[in-house]
Automatic annotation (TrEMBL):
InterPro entries: DUF1622 (IPR012427). The chain crosses the membrane at residues 12-35, 47-68, 80-101. The keyword Ligase does not apply. This is DUF1622 domain-containing protein. Keywords: Membrane, Transmembrane, Transmembrane helix. It comes from the Bacteria. The keyword Coiled coil does not apply.
Length: 117
């Protein structure tokens, strides 16, 4: 197996890990929410926060897989441009999720918990 083929497999494994984290994380978050809802009335805001964190982690890992594949495996100008677009979209999505989770812009000082909606 060549160097390029090896890292193509590595990129697929990393991307699979990112998708697996999101899938398993979704199940775990939903189960925790259901248990909390049955015990004490689960908070929808907590569900959103935990789900957003799972998505952020999965997106970060998917970006790593994309970078490895583009830089090592398919390093053409077109693929680098596509990678840049993918990273830009995922970065904007990550930024929006972070604002949604924390309720503040990243450059703002931390404040107390968000009031209920």
């Amino acid at each position: 197996m060549s160097f390029t083929e090896t890292f193509d497999v590595v990129a697929y494994v990393i991307e699979g890990l990112g998708v697996t984290i999101m899938a398993i994380g979704l199940v775990v978050v939903l189960v925790r929410y259901a248990v909390a809802a049955l015990r004490r009335g689960g908070s929808y805001d907590q569900l959103r926060v935990h789900l957003g964190r799972v998505i952020l982690l999965g997106l970060e890992i998917l970006i790593i897989g994309d970078i490895i594949r583009t830089v090592i495996v398919d390093s053409s100008l077109q693929n680098v441009a596509v990678l840049g677009l993918i990273v830009l979209i995922r970065t904007v999505l990550s930024f929006a999720l972070e604002v949604e989770i924390s309720g503040r812009w990243p450059w703002q000082a931390k404040r107390g918990p968000r009031p209920p909606a």
